[in-house]
What we know:
Layout: H1 5-11, H2 15-27, E1 43-45, E2 50-52, E3 58-59, H3 74-86, H4 93-100, H5 104-117, E4 133-141, H6 150-154, E5 157-164, E6 169-174, H7 179-189, E7 195-199, E8 213-217, E9 225-226, E10 229-230, H8 232-249, H9 254-269, H10 277-282
Amino acid sequence: MKYTFVDFKNQYPDDNACLDAVLQRRYGATEACPHCGVVGKLTRIQGRRGYACKEGCHVFPCAGTVFEHSSTPLSQWFHAMYLMTTTRNGVSAKELQRQLGVTYKCAWRIGHQLRDLMSARAIANNPGQLSGHVEVDETFIGGKVKGKGRHYIKNKSTVLGIVQREGDVRGFVVSNVKRRTLLPLVRKNVAEGSRVSTDTYASYGKLKKFGYKHGMVNHDIDEWVKGIYSTNTIEGFWSHLKRGIKSTHASVSRKHLQRYIDEFAFRYNNRQEPAVMFARMLAQISKPTSFEPLK
């Protein structure tokens, strides 16, 4: 089932519909005032993003959300959320600027605040550790130097990826590929006793010691599958991530790379249910982000 732009506009035609959606998300059916508890319908306060109950209490559903200090209309925020959740390779700040009719600075900050909501670490229903058959691999993103060796790695950002076959993926920007850096992340995100596929990189050499069923494939001899072991799933995600960054954003800085990884992981993890991706993002609007309020 798809969530088309026609469906989106029918559901959220204007700012009032968007504010009603935020109110329902924050306080449910609102049969009573969430502040004083008086039963009765809330009345919209004209000219403000708020409601009033029969006793005069004012309810501002945008307070404590990413919309709180933004003068950008809610309909434009929701449009940005739709674009971020329905495009395969994401949306650049310039495209948001063109679509929303805002300044580049505003579009850039909206994009990053929404990426924070797409972060796996911010999702309340995060299922915890991955299990079953899990693939682990590291990759290098960015930089202009091509090839192999110390100089190739030095100018790039290092990323560790963990994916459960037929399940979710998680990616982490790390400082290096040493064992003391990678293994704690694997142990934190993969349930003990799971089957783990990696390449022959030395940092993964002690996974069996920690209770994992570990199998390796040797890429140095062009070995990509060894029985049930392979890293093809995580490498497929790396390929999509890199193509998406290059085609949509051209390049990203190390400072913000984690946000882009989380964005692509969010879409990957919801690939089987594209129609509910927007709703799941909307469900996170009250989560704190790392940005200061929009001016």
